[in-house]
């Protein structure tokens, strides 16, 4: 391959510095997502490492500048790993990239002072780069929801290419005769490895940006579909889920049951104890309801102090059993807020598609009517829509 190594080095160094700025800018709007600043630092150090190595054009090269270049570049990859861990889990030991830098400096200094063998130094550096890039790839090949998985695996694949390239470089130099390797020697290995390395490094940065982009959009989607106070689905996402279920049930002929839950005398709770206590009552009801439902059921805050549960493949009788249990557990539990202890109750209305039809609005109206029946009958009870229909 007739590629000029120096031009490539300048290009890759300049691109790395540019990517560092790009990632730093992206990190400014990453909210609570961690790791992007560390990726930016990683690119900066990689760029500087290459720039320092570039200054050693041909003999006589200053070995200490090359030591500095290798240390910076390896520290850069260490920061990429640090950022990836932070992005994934929100936590990583801060000393890790410094440990990589320390190891790189120690290894390179050893080969300058005690064992001045360029072959051995390049093999050792290649193996270090191989190791850290392989660890980065291993961090990213994990099972997770789409589309984040695509971004993770794309970045992981790019790290793998880089790791494979460094391993290949180490093996080729190991097998070649002594005193034949030099950074600027005209051997095909140099341009090939710098070309692949540069491309893979670019792909890694694109992967980081893609990961950030998908994570932000997933977070926005989650925010738009959940209720901020209780963390359960909001009305909008419940309606979406219901229409998806109903479209399927129209074809399959399955039944759907709906439960409307309303806290009794909630205004009085707010007036007597304050809105914070009222909020705590809603959170407590959410916790009780979440424990009562099955994995396939959908719990949502429908508005104010009203909650709705969708029970797929269920009829009123199933819903009644669940509603009765929920009502009893809620009424029997005490809610504590800043030393205040109080009890509360709920009225529940239930309906199913056998009586109200396979239409979400008519199901909701039916469950709501049943809930008001429960209120009229004295509250703290469960009422069925079919009872009023039969009557
Ligand atoms: N603390 C708190 N209160 C809320 C929230 N959303 C709505 N509310 C209050 O909930 C109360 C609902 O009162 P009403 O609709 O009169 O019902 P109620 O007092 O529960 O009476 P019944 O339903 O007939 O038993 C109102 O005072 C609203 O201000 C919320 O997110 N937090």
Automatic annotation (TrEMBL):
TM region positions: 64-82, 94-112, 118-138, 150-172, 192-212
Supply the alphabetized keyword list.
Answer: Membrane, Transmembrane, Transmembrane helix
User: Pfam families from the entry?
Assistant: GGDEF
Tell me which domain of life the UniProt entry assigns to the organism this sequence originates from.
Answer: Bacteria
Which InterPro entries does the record cross-reference, listed alphabetically? Diguanylate_Cyclase, GGDEF_dom, Nucleotide_cyclase, Rev_trsase/Diguanyl_cyclase
**Span of domain GGDEF:** 254-387
Against SUPFAM superfamilies, the record matches this protein to:
Nucleotide cyclase (SSF55073)
Main EC class the enzyme belongs to: transferase
Q: Which reaction does it catalyse?
A: 2 GTP = 3',3'-c-di-GMP + 2 diphosphate
- Tell me its EC number(s), please: 2.7.7.65
Gene3D superfamilies with a match to the protein in the record:
3.30.70.270
The protein in question is named: diguanylate cyclase
Q: Which organism is it from?
A: Methylomonas subterranea
Q: What is the lineage of its organism?
A: Bacteria, Pseudomonadati, Pseudomonadota, Gammaproteobacteria, Methylococcales
């Amino acid at each position: 391959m007739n590629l000029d190594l120096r031009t490539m080095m300048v290009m890759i160094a300049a691109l790395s510095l540019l990517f560092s700025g790009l990632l730093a800018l992206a990190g400014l709007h990453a909210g609570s997502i961690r790791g992007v600043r560390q990726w930016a630092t990683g690119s900066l150090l990689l760029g500087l490492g290459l720039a320092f190595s570039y200054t050693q054009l041909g003999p006589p090269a200053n070995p200490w500048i090359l030591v500095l270049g290798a240390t910076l570049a390896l520290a850069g990859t260490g920061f990429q790993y640090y950022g990836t861990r932070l992005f994934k889990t929100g936590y990583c030991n801060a000393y890790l990239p410094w440990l990589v830098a320390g190891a790189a400096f120690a290894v390179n200094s050893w080969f300058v002072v005690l064992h001045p063998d360029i072959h051995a130094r390049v093999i050792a550096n290649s193996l270090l780069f191989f190791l850290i890039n392989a660890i980065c790839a291993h961090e990213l090949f994990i099972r997770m929801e789409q589309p984040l998985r695509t971004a993770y695996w794309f970045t992981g694949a790019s790290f793998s290419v880089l790791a494979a390239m460094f391993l290949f470089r180490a093996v080729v130099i190991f097998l070649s005769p002594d005193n034949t390797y030099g950074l600027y020697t005209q051997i095909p290995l140099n341009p090939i490895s710098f070309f692949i390395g540069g491309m893979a490094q670019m792909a890694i940065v694109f992967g980081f940006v893609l990961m950030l982009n998908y994570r932000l959009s997933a977070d926005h989607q989650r925010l738009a579909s959940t209720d901020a106070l209780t963390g359960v689905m909001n009305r909008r996402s419940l309606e979406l889920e219901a229409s998806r279920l109903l479209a399927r049930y129209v074809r399959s002929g399955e039944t759907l049951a709906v439960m409307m839950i309303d806290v009794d005398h909630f205004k009085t709770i707010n007036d007597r104890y304050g809105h914070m206590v009222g909020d705590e009552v809603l959170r407590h009801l959410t916790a009780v309801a979440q424990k009562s439902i099955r994995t396939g059921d959908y719990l949502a805050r429908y508005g104010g102090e009203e909650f709705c549960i969708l029970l797929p493949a269920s009829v009123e009788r199933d819903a009644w059993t669940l509603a009765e249990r929920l009502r009893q557990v809620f009424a029997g539990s005490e809610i504590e807020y800043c030393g205040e202890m109080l009890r509360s109750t709920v009225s529940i209305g239930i309906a199913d598609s056998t009586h109200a039809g396979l239409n979400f609005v008519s199901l909701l109206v039916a469950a709501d009517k049943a809930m008001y029946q429960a209120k009229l009958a004295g509250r703290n009870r469960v009422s069925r829509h079919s009872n009023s229909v039969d009557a």
